[in-house]
UniProtKB/TrEMBL annotation:
Organism ancestry: Eukaryota, Metazoa, Chordata, Craniata, Vertebrata
A Pfam family reported for this protein in Swiss-Prot or TrEMBL: Mob1_phocein
A GO MF term: kinase activity
InterPro entries, per the entry: MOB_kinase_act_fam, MOB_kinase_act_sf
Name under which the protein is recorded: MOB kinase activator 3B
Keyword line: Kinase, Signal, Transferase
Signal peptide: 1-27
UniProt-listed SUPFAM superfamilies: Mob1/phocein
Amino acid sequence: MRRTIIFATVQILALKSFLCFCDSVQRIPFPKNFIQICKKILCRLFRVFVHVYIHHFDRILLMGAEAHVNTCYKHFYYFATELNLIDRKELEPLVRTEQDTHDDTFTC
């Protein structure tokens, strides 16, 4: 998980990737691979959600934070799927987990 967060941070801090200037004097567009960079970051962050839900959800329940984590995941899910930033087949691990548990904990 640490490597994923470091990867995402490095990508976001790379000013060439995430800055776009559009003013009357200078116009610098997003790089051509901007969408691919975003997709890769979101795909890796989704894997962190999967890991947390599968391996650490019992701890989240003990802390009473399941509503917060579920809300965070729902926002992430709706954002990524609305903008087609994560391939549907990447979303299958959490769907399978939901079906295996017969619980609505993972419902979007």
